[in-house]
Amino acid sequence: MKRLICAFALLILISSCGSNRKSAEQALLDQVDSTSLTDTGISEEVISDIIQQIPSPLEISVLLKEVGTEYDNDILNAASNTSKYNSNYKRALNLGIYGTDLGYTNIYSQNQDALFYLKSIRDLADGLSIGQFFDFGTISRLATNSNNLDSLLLITTQNFNKINSYLQEQKRSNLSVLLLAGGWLEALHISCQVNEMNGGNAELVEKIGEQKIILENIMLLLSFYSETDPSISKLMENFTELKDVYDQVEITYTYEDPTYEVVDGVLTIVDNSSSSINITDQNINDITRITASIREKVIN
Amino acid sequence: MSEEILKALTQLFAIITKQDGGVTEKERDFVIKYFEQELDQDSVNEYIDLYDKFAEYKKPGEETGEVVEKKKQRKLTSVRDSVKTLAICKKINKTLTQKQKVVVLIKILELVASDKNFTPQRMEIIDTISTVFNISKEEYKLFECFVLKESSAEMPFSDILTVSEKAPDLSGGQKYTHASLQGEIVFMNVKSVDMYFVRYLGSEEVVLNGFIMKSGIIYLFAHGSTIKTPKGDALYYSDLIRNYLSDLEANEISFNVKALEFRFPNGAIGLRNVEISEGPGKLIGIMGASGAGKTTLLNVLAGIESPSSGAVLINGKNIHQEKDSIEGVIGYVSQDDLLIEELTVYQNLYYNAKLCFDGMSEEDLHKRVMTVLESLGLDQRKDLRVGSVLDKTISGGQRKRLNIALELIREPAVLFVDEPTSGLSSRDSENVIDLLKELSLKGKLIFVVIHQPSSDIYKMFDKMFILDTGGFPIFYGHPVEAVTYFKKSTNQVDADRGQCPTCGNVNPEQIFNIIEAKVVDEYGEFTNKRKVNPKQWNARYDKEFKLNWNEDVDVTPPKSLNIPSKFKQTVIFTTRDLLSKLSNKQYMLINFLEAPLLAFILAFIIRYKSSPDQSEYLFRFNENFPVYIMMSIIVALFMGLTVSAEEIIRDRKILKRESFLNLSWNSYLVSKIFILIVISAIQTFCFVLLGNLILEIKDGFFSFWIILFSVSVMANILGLNVSSAFNSAVTVYILIPILIIPQMVLSGLLFSFDKLNDLISTKGKVPVLADVMVSRWAYEAVAVDYYKNNGFQWRFYDFEQQERQSDFQSAFLIPAIKDKLDGIIENKDNDSMKEDLEDDLSLVKVELQKLESTKRIEGINVDELELASITEDQKTAIVAYLDELDSWYKDQFNLAVNKREKLIGLLETSEEIDFDLNELKNTYYNESLADLVRNVTVKNRMIEYEGELIQQIDPVFNEPRARHPLDYRAHFFAPTKNYLGFTLDTFSFNLIVIWLMSILLYVTLYFELLRKGIDSLGSIKFGGNKTAKPKK
Predict the structure, then answer these.
(1) Low-confidence ranges of chain A (pLDDT < 70)
(2) Fewest C-beta atoms under 10 Å: which of A202, B277, B300, B387?
(3) Residue B886 sits at the chain A interface (C-beta within 8 Å)
(4) Contact state of A170 with B894 under an 8 Å Cβ cutoff
(5) Residues B774-786: what's their mean pLDDT?
(6) Beta strands in B871-1018 (DSSP E)
(7) What is the pLDDT of residue A258?
(8) DSSP string across A167-194
(9) Are the beta carbons of B894 and A171 separated by less than 8 Å?
(10) Closest CA to B291 of B440, B449, B72
């Protein structure tokens, strides 16, 4: 009988612990209740236009292979980090990051790693309610055979484009922007790391320097949301630091009239303008360091 | 008797007789006769020599002048003799029982009386002997009178009974019974040792147990003795004894059995025309060849079985029809052990008494129990555990006596005992029958089925009822007469002698040898044919025996029973059961170690380095958690079943005995369930505690426990049902897998409800078959409750629900309706597709109606949409409506997302709350469980089934819709349930369902529906049997 009483006492103790914990948060929950939909005031078309101007992060990956560096997955974001991303902000950013990582592993035909990233992408997409763009039945079937990897990647890449447009349609372009920012950030980071490891490569340095323009676009996009979203405004701050370094990079654009040529019987316009980038080693070092630190914050 | 004692006795005799005048010839003859009785011829001479030596006996003529010298020394010798006597008596004291000592003392008195030489010195020595023998002064006086006086009138004691033609002077309180004879027969009752002695004072040939009684000589009147006078009167032991006891108790009981016939269910006759008439204070034996129907007769007499015709009347009340009026009057001791093995002898009796006597104080109860124990000689054993037949702590005889004691304690007026001596040693047998005899002498009417009794036992019965094969009564009368009756019937030599003339033994075997004597064929071999068949014996019986009917006594039969209230009964049952369980160390150990052990095995095995980088254990990534929940439920079921499955079977015999008390079945069941509930509570508590500790499940302890506990209780009651329906524990244990495996299969985890046989499954709903399974309710309750209310999810659940459901509507449902609508408009003139389109349209209508509960559709009545008449305009209107709704859902979705993100932001920045989203999720959230209840692996997020679109994804966010108030059905893992217009969360709803199941099972248990069902199945006869039966 005594035992029984003890047991019940313990039970009451345990159940009472739970209620205390909850009451402290109730106030915050009430506060959240009043949340309403916010409007950026910027039309979806404008955002869409800007997004279109940003090149795919995959381009960098292609360049990396051309430079002839070896595959190194240490510079990527580990797939096992997926479980750490529990807010939409983190999910979207890291979905972008993993997208770039997936492209990188693809170019080097690292099938096993690619599968890990696929799974991470799937989980994050699911968390963002955009899981329907991944037919997981097909994916898992394809994934069992490494020969299918090409088609798998094709599907995934196409899906990223679809996701972007879908999110915009869903009035969730903030996620779209974050997705983009994450992808871009990872691409920049990989480039910087590879560049550092190779002790400086002219092509890469130029590529890194070119990112000044893209950074400006991304910052513009982020600025649309920074007022309503505290997380984005924080990211903005971080990017501003990067922008300060990029401000020291000069891109001179030399205009020359375009010429007309007939190629295979078709009249085409040839752009004769060129741009030259003026970037110092110090700039590169700063960019590498700051990029890494921003990324570190994002992936953890 | 040992040589030493005989020597001592010889000395005693010698010392006494040599006093005052020395040994006379008469005295010496008496001693010699005594020796002859005790010893063989050779030893007799040896002892006579010894006696002569001690008594200083000189043969006539040898006397010399020494005599004179001796007389001078007389004084001195007597002192020496006294000391000697004392020493001898002390020696005797150590070896002889009190009864034997009484016999010795009476012998000595008789010795002195033989020559009537009562000198003071002799008497003084005898007096000393009686004192040393611890015989009270009064009894000694009684002995003296009885032995020395020549008529009963001179024996003024109430312990004296005279049998004569004319009553003598009874002023001294003597008792008297009439019999026609010359002179008188005097009986003496020695109360302290419960013995009877008899003396005949007269000159006729009075026969005691077949020998002639010599006048004046004292005989021991033992159990079953008979005295017959020349005029044919018979004085039976029991009748005489009753004279002594008649003033003790007056039980007014008449027991009349009239033309009793019993048929077995298969139509065979078990008893034919049994007629019995008895009053109080009789011990009736029922004998018969095996299979003659003895136990059947006993059962019918006791009211356990109903006769096909005839009646058993106790005080005029038909015991089979007026059960209430004879409640507590009848006691029944079956052949089986009806003891609670784990309890002590005392406890067995005590709780039984408690159930019989409400309102009796603890002290009185204790006294009563102790009295019964003492009277059965069990008081020394009272604190011993009864133990099982294999693990004996008390002997078989003691067990039997305790069984009888259980009935005795409530002192039923009529007691039925089935073969109380089977399997007992002859000494134990005698003790048991002795006890019954004593009871009958106290006024109880006792029927005993007896098999192969020894002579002594046989003689103790007042009457014997003998049945022959086929239930024919063939004898009803005094036991010893049975022998003479059957001997006479077959014209045997010496037919008058029922007992052995020298030893007084009766051989009951003889009776059956005569009854069943076989005809011998021409080769001298026995054939199967009996000389006299049962029918012939019965015919002779009908002729010879005329029953003297006892008048039906017209008073309520005496009963001492006072049944406690139902609540009190429950308390008594519970205490009794609890004590018996507590004393069973193995049972306790197994039951209370079982749960923690299973929890340890289960939890320890499924705990692994589960974190994504496989460096440590994180609850969040433990993929075994969903299976752990199911296994826990199965364990709870298992423990619940096994702990209860044997309960009623084990008690069945005890229940049979207690059925005579008319105790409350409900109280019994409640007490059982109460104890089982406590055991289940502790077991499941230990299980959850240890399991959750090992797996680091830091939340949902209480809800998990309450579900497991409820499941276990349900299993307890299910087990009791099974236990009450089947006869052996083995059957029950074989049954357990049959009960458990469907619970596993239909728990919802092992096999998806959507992928079951089409006969069973209903898409989008839990199959009805699974609704019968407690495991499914329990599993759903735990899984949904844990997912919704764990320490991480509880704050996000509502947002996520809004988010996911809005997303589903806008991303899947609305586009699907639009598609259908397009298809309808495009092909509506195509006749070949008409049927499909009708279906599509009805689906669209159903889904639109569902959507209308959110927002009304303007300008169109959905019900009136017809395939033939649907127009482009209507479609446009519907699409517009759907677009509007879609946009609304998108807003809902974004709102929910924003709220959640904002909450996370607030929590992370809050100074009061230490919040780490990731940490919290690792601790409380389980990914596998989330995947399960959100059904994320499903291929089609939405399917079409029976004219409806059914959401497959996210069941845990999908609120079910009831079609009508009584519709309880919902999809698996629904977050809430609807019934009768109420909406309850799944946990509470399922918990209620589980308890309703338990209550339902209690009802079936109470009415023993399962048992009745099985019985009715068992009574179905197969065709062959029916035709084989002879027609009447």
Answers:
(1) 1-24, 38-41, 57-58, 134-157
(2) A202
(3) no
(4) yes
(5) 95
(6) 942-944, 949-951, 976-979, 982-985
(7) 77
(8) HHHTT-HHHHHHHHHHHHHHHHHHHHHH
(9) yes
(10) B449
Quick check: B66 pLDDT over 50? no
The Cα B57–Cα B63 span in angstroms is 9
- Mind listing the pLDDT tens digit for each residue in B332-369? 888 877 888 888 889 888 988 888 888 888 898 898 88
pLDDT of B977 > 70? The answer is yes
Q: In this complex, do A88 and B901 lie within 8 Å of one another by their Cβ atoms?
A: yes
Distance of CA B792 to the CA centre of its chain: 54
Q: Do B900 and A88 touch (CB under 8 A)?
A: yes
From B237, B236, B277, B274, select the one nearest B253 (Cα to Cα).
B277
Contact A295/A93 with Cβ under 8 angstroms?
no
Instruction: Find chain A residues with C-beta within 8 A of B906's C-beta.
Output: 28, 31-32
CA of A158 vs chain B CAs: smallest distance (Å): 19
Which are the contacts of B29, defined by CB distance < 8 A and separation ≥ 6?
B114
Cα–Cα nearest to B855, from B786, B903, B797, B806: B806
Q: pLDDT tier at B901 (50, 70, 90 boundaries)?
A: confident
Mutate to test the interface with A, among B574, B918, B925 (most CBs of A within 10 A): B918
β-pairing, A259-263 vs A266-270, is: antiparallel
For residue B312 the two structure tokens come to: 């058993």
Q: Which of B803, B893, B939 sits opposite A137 (nearest CB)?
A: B939
Gap between the Cα atoms of B299 and B829, Å rounded:
86
pLDDT, position B284? 92
For residue A163, what are its two tokens?
């996701």
Predicted TM-score (pTM) of this structure = 0.77
Q: Which residues, listed in sequence order, are joined to residue B957 by a DSSP beta bridge? A: none
CA distances from B689 to A179, B680, B694, B756 (A): 44, 14, 9, 35
The tokens describing B543, both together, are 């002729």
Query: Lowest-confidence range among B66-80, B234-248, B731-745?
Result: B66-80
Report the chain B residue with the minimal C-alpha distance to residue A34.
B899
* Residue carrying the six token digits 């974004």: B894
Is the CB of residue B280 less than 8 Å from the CB of residue B447?
no
pLDDT for residue B223 is more than 90 = no
Q: Name the residue with higher pLDDT: A45 or B691.
A: B691
Give the model confidence (pLDDT) of B555-571 as tens digits: 777 776 788 888 999 99
Asked if B941 and A81 come within 8 Å (Cβ–Cβ), the reply is no
- pLDDT, mean of residues B854-882: 83
How many CB atoms are closer than 10 A to CB B332?
A: 23
Distance CA(B311)–CA(B320), nearest Å, equals 8
3-state secondary structure of B140: helix
3-state secondary structure of B808: helix
* Cα separation, B727 vs B646, whole angstroms: 10
DSSP letter (8 states) at residue A222: H
Q: What are phi and psi of B359, to 5 degrees?
A: 80, -5
Q: A230: which chain B residues are within 8 Å (Cβ-Cβ)?
A: 905
Chain A touched by B794 (CB under 8 Å): yes
